[in-house]
Amino acid sequence: MEFRTIGTSDLKLSAITFGSWAAGGWMWGGTEQNDAVKAIQSAFDYGVTTIDTAPIYGMGHSEKIVGEAIKDIPRDQVQLITKYGLRWDATEGDFYVNTQDNDGKDIAIYKNSSKASIIKECEDSLKRLGTDYIDLYQIHWPDVTTEIQETMEAVAQLIKDGKVRYAGVCNYNVDQLKEANNYVDIISNQVPYSMVNRGIETDLVPFVLENNMSILAYSPLQRGLLTGKMKAGHVFAKGDHRKGLAFFKDENIKQTDLFLEKLIPLAESKNASISQLVLRWTIEQPGITIALAGARNEKQSISNAKAIDVKLSHEELQFISQELSKVSLNL
User: Burial letters for 166-203: b for 16+ Cβ neighbours within 10 Å, e otherwise?
Assistant: First the structure.
């Protein structure tokens, strides 16, 4: 595995990080807990020492799964990344979305990054994870009902108290990132990024490069679209959030599939899968420090971990870029 320094900190994360959204089951049509635990443990065995989770994933279920998976691993050998700011158990803040939990119960989610909420969320996360500190603590989504100053000063207090090592953000634009950095050292921004979703290259990537911050790319496989396994007419399981997303319209699946077919010879020459090739490409892009790869079972997690073994030359990266320039999805 390759380990990369986040921002100007001394925090080093595995370049392929285990993303546990799907493992928590929420919005992915459920999951089997034993499979999820094995997925995390297998990833660790292959060098993936960093796990990204969040309270909202399965309404605490994902964090509990992570805690179970790492309970016999020395704490200093694993890096835990979690989040705050989405509440399903309170109605204060900015309404986010109506959804269902893993049991099919209707619930409302609110964005709440007030100081009181953050302090409570941190304590709850520590208990679920079975640890006394979080390596990187991130706001999940911007919250218009709370001043950024209040939010970041609360995280700064958690750092002072030893409950959090470093502060990060998720889904922040450049202006929000600038302001947040006035109140606590922000070392990273976790945002969506993939071969077919590269909007951040315009402004966010240049900003983080100039300011020595890191980008943690989530959904690098575009939630399964870039695995090469999805075909037009795909039927999603009940509760799977992808069903209504534009990326998964039949025409976009067809366009993506045609592009991926061009990559098959390159992947085969490296004894790699399309998914592994895509993950390696992702962490080779300027400003992208880490790629979060989700897995719901042992086979998927091992495959993701082995993406680090794929090596791409400058010419091969250029070839991929040329083919990508021909792709035009209707989003």
Answer: bbbbbbbebebbeebbebbebbbbbbbbbbbbeebeee
